Amino acid sequence: MKVLNFGSVNIDHVYRVDHFVVPGETLPSDSYQRLPGGKGFNQTVALARAGAAVSHAGRIGTDGIWLRDYLGTLNVNTTHLNVSEDVPTGHAIIQVGPAGENAILLHGGANHCIAEDDVDRILQDAARAGDALLLQNEISAMPHLISSAADCGMQIVLNPAPMTRAVRDYALEHVAVLILNQVECEQLTGRSDDAALDALAKRCPQAIVVQTLGEQGVRCRHGAETIAIPAVDAEVVDTTGAGDTFTGFFVAEWTRSGDVAKSLQLGCSAAAICVSRVGAAVSIPTLGELGL
User: Fold this and answer.
1) What are the distances in angstroms from CA 203 to CA 174, 207, 209?
2) Residues classed as catalytic
3) What pLDDT shows up at residue 247?
4) How far is 93 from 124, CA to CA, in rounded Å?
5) DSSP secondary structure letters along 95-151
6) Nearest to 277 by CA among 286, 269, 285, 265
7) CA spacing 20 to 30 A to 188: which of 66, 171, 220, 233?
8) Mean pLDDT for each 10-residue chunk of the chain (292 residues)?
């Protein structure tokens, strides 16, 4: 099974700080880096490093061509990563604190210039029944993407981040795999307890529902089965990109073997390496680093 990731591409501006800036404060940073990022981009990098055959569709500005070239070095198919001449690439301002926690300000840029016509054209060329379509929530035309991909017979994997009110109206019944963290789960269901996962499983009865819990690991509802995988011990330096790393490695293994428990474990192991490094895409490990 191949993977088409129709997702965001960003330029990350990363600042290490003593604490997160508060209203009215001017705060000097300890360091600055310009790095590749965006949830879609990060997950494509993770998929590629996990050994998946992956194509990336989306939109960048002329200032982001270096990001397309970066994906090319990983043998990612970027035929449908289009360039807008008059809109900048999406970007993020990321503060990283002493304990590795982060605060992110995001601007969509070219990611929000994807039209339904773009979706129709790309799916007509790239969609194959039975293949996986990976989606996040950082690009435009999401409802059309979900319904169109379902019509094409694709296996839709949705990571609805960042969470917005619009997600509640997405056709989640078409989703084969739903991956979200504890906060996003609460935002989508209105529940902060263990019943949140039950509520999502009830709404998406055909889906594999995965809830990531940070240092507590991950829980998954697959039909009548609930699977819990503990987190792998790690020295946390920067949590940026950990969720994307988990998603990419999970999807890569799931499309290879269909083994949900193995996919969850691989995702947790990869995320543990990611958080021990600075940055998002640049911190994602390879299968070799996991001993595979």
Assistant:
1) 11, 9, 10
2) 244
3) 98
4) 35
5) EE-TTS-EEEEEE-GGGGG--HHHHHHHHHHH--TTSEEEE-SSSS-HHHHHHHHHH
6) 285
7) 233
8) 96 94 96 93 98 98 97 98 97 90 90 97 96 97 98 98 94 96 91 82 91 93 91 89 96 97 97 90 93 82
Output DSSP code: residue 44: H
Q: What is the pLDDT of residue 99?
A: 86
* Dihedral sign, Cα of residue 83, residue 32, residue 28, residue 99: positive
Calpha distance 110→127 (Å, rounded): 22
Helix axes 39-49, 65-73, angle to 10 degrees: 20
Pairing mode of beta strands 208-212, 175-181: parallel
Which residues on adjacent β-strands are paired with residue 5? 56, 134
Residue 158 near residue 139, CB atoms below 8 Å: no
d(CA 28, CA 247): 33
Question: Tell me, what's the pLDDT at 278?
Answer: 81
**What was the pLDDT predicted at 292?**
78
**Local structure of residue 177 (DSSP, 8 states):** E
Q: Give Cβ neighbours of residue 50 (< 8 Å, ≥ 6 apart).
A: 248, 249, 252, 253, 266, 270, 287
Whether residue 88 is preceded by a cis peptide bond, meaning omega within 30 degrees of 0, is no
Q: What is the DSSP string of 219-235?
A: EEEETTEEEEEPPPP--
To the question of pTM greater than 0.90 for the whole model, the response is: yes
> What is the rounded radius of gyration, in angstroms, for the C-alpha atoms of the chain?
18
How many Cα neighbours within 13 Å face the side chain of 272? 18
Q: How far apart are CA 110 and CA 88, in angstroms?
A: 6
What is the C-alpha to C-alpha distance for residues 108 and 64, in angstroms, rounded to an integer?
Answer: 13
